[in-house]
User: Fold this.
Amino acid sequence: MKIFGANELLEDVFEKNLCIGCGACTYLCPYFRSYRGRTAILFPCNLTQGRCWAYCPKVEVDLDDLSKGFFGRSYEADPLGFHRSVKISKAGRQVSEGTFQAGGTVSALMSFALSKGYISAAALTDREGLRPVPRLVQSPDDILRCSSSKYTASPTLSALNQAINEGHNQIGVVGTPCQVLAIAQMRSNPMGDKDFSDPVSLVVGLFCTWAVDFREFDAFISERIEGSRITKVDIPPPPAEIMEVYTDNGKIEIPLDEIRELVPDIALRTTFMVGFPSDSEDKFRLLYDFCREMEFDHLGVFTYCQEEGTGAYRYGDPIPQELKEDFKRRLMELQASISSNKNKAMVGNVRDVLIEGRREGDSYPYWGRLSIQAPEVDGVVFISEGESHPGEFVPVRIEEGYPYDLVGRICSLAK
Ligand SMILES: Cc1cc2nc3c(=O)[nH]c(=O)nc-3n(C[C@H](O)[C@H](O)[C@H](O)COP(=O)(O)OP(=O)(O)OC[C@H]3O[C@@H](n4cnc5c(N)ncnc54)[C@H](O)[C@@H]3O)c2cc1C
Ligand code: SF4
Ligand code: SF4
Assistant:
């Protein structure tokens, strides 16, 4: 992978508004620092290659290379990553005092690793009010103090850099997927240091679909909660559709729709199964109304199929196939009109598109995807004009919107 320096990082990540404030580029040198949820460069640096670029998860990252280095296998884009098995767990009594987010497994793992000497310190995320604060901790009590999720982008990896600067060489880290990607880059010794030894002994990655900008979230919450100390923020599983904010003075509930407005370019997609043995017209109607109200950006629907070895096998397959197909058709028609309106609303916007393929001799010479279009299941953007090549991000002015796909031309304007 070609490595560049701070100037290219500013151009490719900051100026394109891609920085997620992970902290990987901070405290490597005197130049990059985090302040109240944002990362900034304090002085210009003219080195042509640097760790700031090499560790950043938002530059072009060769996932295949990383995957081969860590797992000895090509990258397979499995949403769960390579895994041996899936377990359900929660913390045991020895660590039962924390304000855990969802059972405390993460804090328990870190605590166990510290007590057994597998790690000498952990880079975690504490909170001051709503602000996530990176912490380098060395005691089980401090690990528990950092428990619970802060749903804001956090410069947690500055604590990892701090640990490395202090000479720790058995560090534990908890991070979101982008942060874990940055850690993988650090651990792959991208600068080719001769005396490199991997300073990280344990990485716990969190499932994460979005995080909000701290400053906007802080302003939003301050209007609703005055003078109370926030102790925990939670998003209970669907269909709750709320964010719960726990304070010294009780709990308040905020509809998720209001929070979503703080997340730029968020897209909601899901897939439903229709025709399950207990389905009925009334139940289908509930689902239909829910989808109409939610206005998902992308929706997939498939019909139930009785499969031997599944828990539902014993319920038989009482819904006629024609009715299952009818449920599916009605939902897909509803979604087509929702998607069509959303896609038409994008006409005139300039959006970053990842070029995925070339269509020789076609009136649309390329096709690609927006960040809100999942590969293979959602629509695509057909490019009518402009030059590019697969793998490149290009600004595209959207000119036509259809139920599934968009049409646009490559332009020179950034977003
Ligand atoms: C921004 C964010 C979004 C998430 N979105 C989802 C989701 O959509 N669906 C889902 O099932 N789970 C999501 N999670 C994961 C979930 O909230 C819990 O973290 C996870 O289930 C572990 O629970 P626990 O009780 O074992 O963690 P705990 O024992 O409570 O420990 C939580 C750990 O998370 C770390 N942490 C907290 N906030 C951050 C942060 N902003 N960045 C990096 N590390 C942090 C802390 O250092 C602590 O070690 C998200 C987490 C985060 C931070
Ligand atoms: S190139 Fe090196 S010295 Fe310059 S900002 Fe990046 S990490 Fe710091
Ligand atoms: S390393 Fe993290 S904080 Fe630094 S520019 Fe990249 S995304 Fe932003």
Notes: The first strand starts at residue 32 and ends at 35. The longest helix spans residues 321-345. The domain at 214-260 is CATH 3.10.450 (Nuclear Transport Factor 2; Chain: A,).
